[in-house]
Amino acid sequence: MTAFDDLMTEVMATADRFGHREHLHVTWLALRRFGLPETISMVSDGLRSTARYAGVPQKYHTTVSRAWVVLIAHHLANAPVDDFDVFADGNPGLFDKRLLMRFYQPSTLASEAARTGWVEPDREPLPEA
């Protein structure tokens, strides 16, 4: 079992489905325990494997996954709390799935390059983590 699997097990113990909130929660846990560089790799590899296992490998998106990790890391650095619910309540903007449109053109995120590799934002830079 991988560290990502352990985090997923922890988050899914109190959830009925793996939605956006659960994505955020897994990433928050990983950042707190492993730091940014390791979390980028862990979450990317874990989500890619999860999508493949679920039979929907096309749902994995490299740039989207990494950008969300960076955004959560930024908010965590500014509000280093020990409770995910407190973190979530203090950062409601992270629950807007359209948040990445502030940083990326829709056509950029729709590109094959962004789906399969990291593409820098083309509207405004992501905040420092």
Can you walk through the features of this model?
The chain is mainly α and 129 residues long. It has helices at 3-12, 20-34, 36-53, 62-78, 84-90, 106-109, 112-116. The mean pLDDT is 94.
Feature tags:
129 residues; mainly alpha; 7 helices; 59% helix
Strand content: under 5%
**Integer average pLDDT:** 94
Structural class: mainly alpha
Radius of gyration: 14 Å
In total, the number of strands is: 0
Secondary-structure topology with pairs:
Elements: H1 3-12, H2 20-34, H3 36-53, H4 62-78, H5 84-90, H6 106-109, H7 112-116
Helix pairs in contact: 1-2, 2-3, 2-4, 3-4
Outline of this structure?
With 129 residues, this protein is mainly α. It is 59% helix and 0% strand. The protein has seven helices and no strands.
